[in-house]
Amino acid sequence: MRRALPPLHALRAFEAAARHESFSRAADELCVTQGAVSRQIMVLEEWLGVPLFRRLTRRVELTEDGRALLPVLSESFDRIAGTAARLAARGRDLRIRVAFSFGIRWLMPRLVRFQARHPDVQVRVTVAWSTRLEFDPQEFDAAIAYCRQVPSGLSAVEVLPERLTVVCPPALAERLRTPLDLSSIPLLDGCSEGQDWRAWLAAAGLPFFEGLRQGAVFDAMDPALQAAAAGMGATVADRMLCAEDVAAGRLVLPFPEIEASSGSYWFVCPEGMQDRPAAAAFRGWLLEEAREEMVQQSAMAVVSPV
C-alpha cells in the first residue's frame, strides 16, 4: 500500500528545528540557510494543515501538534540511522568460513597483509574442520573451500590448485630410494580415508599395494604434518601447506618430481555477494597472494635428500 508521507526534507528540517527550538541552529546542523529551514517547515505545515510552531519575536515555540510530532520523527530517524549504520558496517565486514588446514597454515600467516591494506574491513574467520563446501549464507558471506567442482548457484574463483606430494622427516627419507620403499615406514593419513595416498601412488604409477604400513589417522592435514615432523611417519600433503616445515628442515620431499591432485581451493560466495566492497577487496587480495605463491613454488629449487 502506498504511504502518504510529507516531504522528507521538510520532516528533517522540522525535527532539527523542534529539537533545538531554533531555526538558526537547525540550519547550522543541516548546513543550509535559516530561510531554507523556515520554508521547509512552512511546506510541512501546509501539507499537514496545522501550525507546528508559534513564531514569537525572538524565538519559536512548538505548538501542541508540533510537540506530538517531534518524538515520532526523532525515534524514526534514530532507527533509520541505526539500521543504516549496521548495514554499512556489514558491508565493511566479511564473515568467511575457511577449510581448517588451509586457514591455519596458509591464510592466517598472510592475513595481516590484508588488514594492513584494508584496515576498514573486519574479517571474521571461522575455521571449519570439514573440507566440504557447505555454508549458510545467513552465517557466512563467503568461504574458502576445497573441492573438485563448485555447486551451481555460487560465484566461485579458483585460488590455488592442490599439489600433493609425500613428505617425511629427514631421518626417514634416508630409507626411501623409490616409492616402493614406502612400505617400510608408517604412512600417516590426514583425514582423506586413504584417497590422497591412492592419488599420489597412482601418479607414481603404483597401485595402493598390500604391505603399506598404516600409521595414525588424523582429522585434518595439519595434525598429520605435525606428526610427520615429529618422526611418526610419512604423509601426503599439499606442497603449499608444508612449505614452512620444508624450509625449516623439519620435513623433506623424498620424491619431489611426483605430484597428484584431487581438487583445488576456491573462493566462493552467493551470487551478487562478490560485488560487495569487502568481498571484492578480499577476493582480489587473495588472488594476488595465490599468484605470488605459485611464482614462489615454481621458482623453488627442490633438491631430493637422497
Automatic annotation (TrEMBL):
<keyword id="KW-0804">Transcription</keyword>
<keyword id="KW-0805">Transcription regulation</keyword>
<dbReference type="InterPro" id="IPR000847">
    <property type="entry name" value="LysR_HTH_N"/>
</dbReference>
<feature type="domain" description="HTH lysR-type">
    <location>
        <begin position="6"/>
        <end position="63"/>
    </location>
</feature>
<dbReference type="InterPro" id="IPR058163">
    <property type="entry name" value="LysR-type_TF_proteobact-type"/>
</dbReference>
<dbReference type="Pfam" id="PF00126">
    <property type="entry name" value="HTH_1"/>
</dbReference>
<protein>
    <submittedName>
        <fullName>Transcriptional regulator GcvA</fullName>
    </submittedName>
</protein>
<dbReference type="InterPro" id="IPR036390">
    <property type="entry name" value="WH_DNA-bd_sf"/>
</dbReference>
<dbReference type="InterPro" id="IPR036388">
    <property type="entry name" value="WH-like_DNA-bd_sf"/>
</dbReference>
<dbReference type="Pfam" id="PF03466">
    <property type="entry name" value="LysR_substrate"/>
</dbReference>
<keyword id="KW-0238">DNA-binding</keyword>
<comment type="similarity">
    <text>Belongs to the LysR transcriptional regulatory family.</text>
</comment>
<dbReference type="InterPro" id="IPR005119">
    <property type="entry name" value="LysR_subst-bd"/>
</dbReference>
